[in-house]
Specification:
By secondary structure, this protein is mainly β. Helix content is about 10%, strand content about 50%. The chain has a single domain (about 1-145), classed as Histone H3 K4-specific methyltransferase SET7/9 N-terminal domain. The chain has one helix spanning about 1-15, and strands at about 30, 35, 40, 50-55, 60-70, 70-80, 85-95, 95-105, 110-120, 120-130, 135-140, 145. A 10-stranded mixed sheet has the order 1-4-5-6-7-8-9-10-11-12, covered by helices on one side. A two-stranded antiparallel sheet has the order 2-3. β9 and β10 (about 120-130) form a beta hairpin.
């Protein structure tokens, strides 16, 4: 559920800003899906959606892309800055952040932070870097709770 709210927030946040990436022909725009009990279906179809999904702005520029299997977001997803550069890469399983997460500084491709999620909660060691790629600090999480 949290992931879906993030998707909608991101879509609204960048809906008026241009991006160089254009809508992928074989992908379905997130707006073409309907949700029923945390499962996604194509509008006017009764079967669960499986395939590529993109969230795009009002100009059909991609701001987020990933996969769905059996109506649930899963696998690696990529979020883009309005310029088309990668903002974040993360893994999703059953509509929740679950796995590796990396976020980058704008206009630089320099890693800003990295860590992992487990069932939507921060887990393991999270690291924050400066623009010179130097480690600023790290924090240990145990399924959403700070250990140190």
């Amino acid at each position: 559920m949290k992931f879906l709210l993030i998707l909608l927030f991101i879509q609204n946040l960048f809906s008026q800003q241009p991006n160089e990436k254009l809508l992928i022909e074989n992908s379905v725009n997130f707006n073409e899906l309907i949700k029923h009990e945390d499962i996604f279906y194509l509008k006017k179809k009764d079967n669960l959606y499986t395939g590529s999904v993109v969230v795009s702005d009002s100009l059909d520029n991609i701001i987020l892309e990933g996969q769905m299997i059996d109506g649930k977001t899963t696998g690696m997803w990529t979020h883009y800055f309005p310029s088309g550069e990668i903002y974040a890469i993360f893994t999703v399983k059953n509509n929740q952040l679950n796995g590796d997460f990396k976020q980058y500084y704008p206009r630089s491709s320099i890693l800003h932070k990295e860590g992992s999620f487990f069932e939507g909660e921060m887990d393991g060691i999270w690291k924050l870097y400066n623009l010179n790629s130097q480690l600023l600090f790290s924090i240990q999480y145990d399924i959403g709770k700070v250990v140190y």
